[in-house]
Specification:
Length: 654
């Protein structure tokens, strides 16, 4: 294995530390609770040892609008079963609509075709109109409103209007196929569907109206379909049941000037999120308003250092939890920079053009995007200023050390690079960044404050600098309320609490490093097990994708001869063929930098790698296909046609 460097890639200077929100927070909790915490590590330990004091302090520091009540935590020893702020009353949307001034609330770029912006006053006014229209069609507390939408201002407006009146918001991106949408919204039975006439991607215009008509016909719960104009000047909605154009839907309510906020319990349902659905119909995960708000305020203000007036960007679709995370940035006083389309538009420069044009302070992306830029030799620091960017965030898959090195060499040297990891399950992060900690190559900077994150071995004992299961040993506010359609909680319990009793087991294979950071080695359910030795898939990807010829790869364990053998699939650059010399080089690179057990028994070339709508490769789906098992719900994939390259491969029969 490569020896780790004894120096971090980046270290915050004294001014950055002094100016950080978390530094002010430490001073605040020291005063409030009579403590002498002197650094982030001490704050972390206190936050998990004294969760009631910590989360009260987050409520106060985040300026939550609402009444917290006298009790912070009930049933603290039960997971699931703990209840946070059981007497609290608040409204999620009110906390995001704090300002009504003329500064930017939202800026939107739709590839290089559309640009617009909304002030805080504009946003508040449009939410007031939309909320009144929802109430007029009979949407009430607990009803569902679904958005089949791009990442654009109207989606934020619909979400805020829905949550303002106590209804529940759920969303998917318009690149989903009909069955993928019905598999999600069919379970949650929305009363209103907000959708769009089409979208732009990679210079093309994609029309959605025919697909929407088919979706609507399969959702009998709908009372109204609200069509948002985006790509067409004229619209024929005659084939879409219950459809009205957005302007017609809100027109009767232009006199409304106030948003009708409902004050609701802490655990009132806010969002329904969906698992990826690559192994069956997606699970419907219900998240509460208070837990989502508190957790996102903590992550934005204390981990990401978002300050009022900052300009927050994350490349995401409305089918990924990072969209919900991004939207909550309004509560921290950020301007949201929304983007819809290909991240490689404008010859690959579009996101960096956006950063310079709009003074972006926080640039959020995926590890795959960073890896692709490195593969094609792009050097944004040579073509763009990026002067305002203080933080770069990466998620979706582990960011390998070479990705860290690339960011500091080719994008920006003085930036806090935070790899983050969590998921739809908790609508937030277990492990993420800190503006006051150094960045070590290949490591996520820290565990989330207030999150009792640990790594367990197979016997359920904590380990350090060894690989094991990512767990959380104590309750936290953004645990799901439960799963939709799971009245006795059995599916919820089975998903996270069967492995270790009363312990959240997240399903990531990881380790806590000597620096107190974390390395994610892949999903536990995709972990390879040749000869009984557990190997994280990320360990192999890191080595394979160093090679110039390899664009990306996917690795599985194939059951073979009463054991498991490692099978690697590679997508190569155009014109490159997987010959014996390249196979030998791939194997040597893996062997020299890992162990002989990591070396694949088979290496096969494919033209594409299947992935979910949020860009995650689907190792389990490929593993099922290789073993002759059905792959259910291919609608969850962005490119389901790619699966055919893995079916019935002769090379895997010997």
């Amino acid at each position: 294995m490569n020896a780790p460097s004894d120096q971090p890639l980046w270290r915050p200077d004294a001014k950055r530390i002094a100016d950080a929100n978390v530094t002010a927070f430490i001073a605040e909790v020291n005063r409030r609770w009579g403590l002498e915490l002197d650094d982030f590590d001490a704050l972390y330990e206190w936050s998990v040892d004294s969760p009631e004091c910590f989360w009260q302090s987050v409520w106060a520091f985040g300026g939550v609008i609402g009444e917290p009540g006298a009790t912070v935590l009930e049933n603290a020893d039960r997971m699931p079963g703990a209840r946070w702020f059981p007497q609290a009353r608040l409204n999620f949307a009110r906390n995001l609509l704090r300002s009504r001034d003329e500064t930017d609330a939202i800026v939107f770029w739709g590839e290089d075709k559309v640009q617009n912006r909304l002030t805080h006053a504009d946003l508040y006014r449009q939410v007031a109109h939309f909320a009144a229209a929802l109430k007029e069609v009979g949407v009430a507390k607990g009803d569902r409103v679904a958005a089949f939408m791009p990442n654009m201002p109207e989606t934020i407006i619909a979400m805020l209007a829905t949550t303002a009146i106590g209804a529940v918001f759920t969303s998917a991106s318009p690149d989903f196929g009909v069955q993928g949408v019905v598999d999600r919204f069919g379970q949650t039975e929305p009363k209103v569907l907000v959708t769009v006439d089409g979208y732009y991607y990679n210079g093309k215009t994609v029309d959605c109206i025919a697909k929407i008509a088919e979706v609507v016909d399969k959702l009998p719960s709908l009372k109204r379909v609200v069509m948002v104009p985006y790509v067409h000047a004229e619209h024929d909605l005659s084939g879409v049941r219950h459809a009205r154009m957005l302007a017609d839907f809100v027109a009767p309510f232009h006199f409304e000037s106030e948003v009708p906020f409902e004050e609701l319990p802490f655990d009132h349902p806010l969002f329904i999120m969906y698992s990826s659905g690559t192994t069956g119909v997606p699970k419907c995960i219900v998240h509460g308003a208070g837990g989502t708000l508190l957790q996102h305020l903590k992550e934005h203000k204390l981990h990401t250092d978002v300050k009022p007036g900052d300009r927050l960007f994350y490349f995401t679709t409305c089918g990924w939890m990072m969209w919900n995370w991004l939207a909550s940035g309004l509560a921290a006083g950020a301007t949201l920079l929304l983007y819809d389309g290909s991240p490689f538009a404008a010859a690959g420069d579009i996101l960096f053009d956006y950063a310079d044009a709009e003074g972006m302070t926080h640039f959020g992306t995926s590890a795959k995007f960073i890896d692709h830029l490195a593969k094609i030799g792009r050097r944004p620091r040579d073509t763009h200023s990026l002067a305002t960017v203080r933080a770069i965030m990466s998620t979706g898959s582990p960011l390998v050390p070479e990705g860290f090195a690339y960011v500091y060499d080719a994008i920006k040297a003085d930036v806090c690079l935070s790899s983050i990891s969590g998921g739809t399950d908790i609508l937030s992060c277990f492990v993420l960044g800190s503006p006051v900690l150094p960045v070590w190559s290949g490591e996520i900077q820290c565990r989330g404050l207030g999150m009792a994150v640990d790594v367990f071995d197979d016997e359920g004992k904590p380990v350090r600098e060894e690989k094991g299961e990512l767990v959380c040993t104590r309750p936290f506010p953004s645990m799901p309320i439960g799963f939709w359609g799971d009245p006795d909680g059995s599916k919820y319990h089975a998903a996270y609490f069967e492995r270790f009793e009363n312990i959240w087991c997240h399903g990531d294979f990881c380790e806590i490093t000597a620096h107190g950071g974390l390395i994610i080695h892949g999903r536990s359910d995709a972990t390879l097990n040749p000869g009984g030795v557990r190997i994280g898939t990320a360990e192999i990807y890191r080595q394979v994708e160093k090679l110039h010829e390899v664009v990306e790869s996917l690795v599985i364990g194939q059951d073979w001869d009463k054991d498991v053998r490692v099978v690697l699939f590679v997508r190569l650059r155009d014109g490159v063929v997987l010959d014996e010399e390249l196979v030998a080089r791939i194997k040597k690179t893996i062997r020299d930098n890992t162990t002989p057990r990591h070396v694949p028994a088979k290496i096969l070339q494919v033209a594409d790698i299947p992935r979910t709508k949020s860009g995650k490769i689907v190792e389990l789906a490929v593993r099922n296909l290789v073993h002759g098992r059905a792959v259910r719900n291919v609608e969850a994939l962005a490119n389901p046609e790619a699966l055919e390259q893995f079916r019935d491969r002769d090379e895997l029969s010997s």
